[in-house]
Amino acid sequence: MANQKVMTVRGPVDPNVLGFTLTHEHLCLNLGNFYTAAPSDVEAFLDKKIKLHNVGYVRQYPYSSKYNLVLDDDDASDAVQQDVIQYKKLGGSTIVENTSHGLSRNLKQLHALSTATDVQIVAGTGHYIQAAQPDSVLSMTIEELEDLYTKEILFGVTIASDTAVCCGLIGEVGTSWPITSFEKRTIQATAEAQSTLQCPVSFHPGLVQEAPFEVVRLYLEAGGKADKCVMSHMDLTMHATDDLLEFAKLGTYCQFDLFGNECSYQQLVPQSYMQSDEQRIQHILELIEEGFAERILLSHDVHTKHRLTSFGGHGYGHILTNILMRLSLKDVNKDTIDMITVENPAKWLAMPK
After folding, report:
1. Please, are residues 323 and 259 in contact by the beta-carbon 8 Å criterion?
2. What share of the chain is helix, strand, coil (3-state, %, to 5)?
């Protein structure tokens, strides 16, 4: 990948040195605004720290524990660092951190974490869903949004008198369903910035089957490039094989990013359901069979405490320790696995020097 770079929080690197890459994780964020009440008979188990006696309830109702929704306190920071260190020991090299505006992004903490663990971290700019934004942001124009994204990629954000952290992607760009007028502006601004910078982008769609199609339509119509675009949470929106294969034809990356989450109840969209790891694997096999291996990405989307090993979860190493083995047992060869976990992320993240 001559004359290309990937921008990490510690500066640009050659795409060829990324190694095994998780393309959708969170290392520091705050989801307090997304608190959702649980049934009254279990609420008492959720209003405290996560221990053995209540972790089962937290897994079932993760958004009903205020403690669970904070991934930027001291307890979470220590647990995240331990899991990132373990990820590196298992063979991981790079993590794409998708915390955007509206989720309490902390570039200073990401820079410190990357320095302490020697794991390459790629940070995002962009805006999450409208419900996460203050009123002052909702009035921003397309031009103002595009200008912000461009500056944070080209010039960075100052975290100390002598240090600025540059973002390496626009993402995750969040949309609801139906897509709001503000979110449509963020999609258009993302597309226009992408067209100019040739940078990678990542979208969080509303959690219904129609949403990924509509987001990509708006993005492409605004000039965004399909092969630099990731559609996140395919394991939440594409339950039917026909829908998945139809979406794959649009040319974006199809990201399965909730590996390790085995609770079928989808608390934020209770009329739907959360796929299991086995269902995720089956959809990946279908895409490979139909010739879309070059468009697959994998991750965990860790964004709450209970997914970290210190709180009874799987951490950032689950795909490395469990999922790659299961793909191999289903006759996915090493070259294809390397394409999905090493080559595809590098191609997506690469942009001109």
Report:
1. yes
2. 45, 15, 40
Instruction: Answer for the pair 299, 22: CB distance below 8 angstroms, yes or no.
Output: yes
Give residues with Cβ within 8 angstroms of 127, minimum separation 6. 100, 101, 102, 133, 137, 145, 173, 174, 186
C-alpha span between 76 and 73 (Å, rounded): 5
For 28, phi and psi rounded to 5 degrees? Answer: -165, 110
Which residue reads 């994204």 in tokens?
149
Alpha-carbon dihedral angle through residues 9, 10, 12, 17, given to the nearest 10 degrees: -100
- The pTM (predicted TM-score) of the whole model is 0.98
pLDDT by residue (tens digit) across 200-254? Answer: 999 999 999 999 999 999 999 999 999 999 999 999 999 999 999 999 999 999 9
Give the residues across from 204 on adjacent strands: 174
Question: d(Cα 171, Cα 233) in Å, to the nearest integer?
Answer: 13
* pLDDT band of 67, cuts 50, 70, 90: very high
Q: At 119, is the pLDDT very low, low, confident or very high (cuts 50, 70, 90)?
A: very high
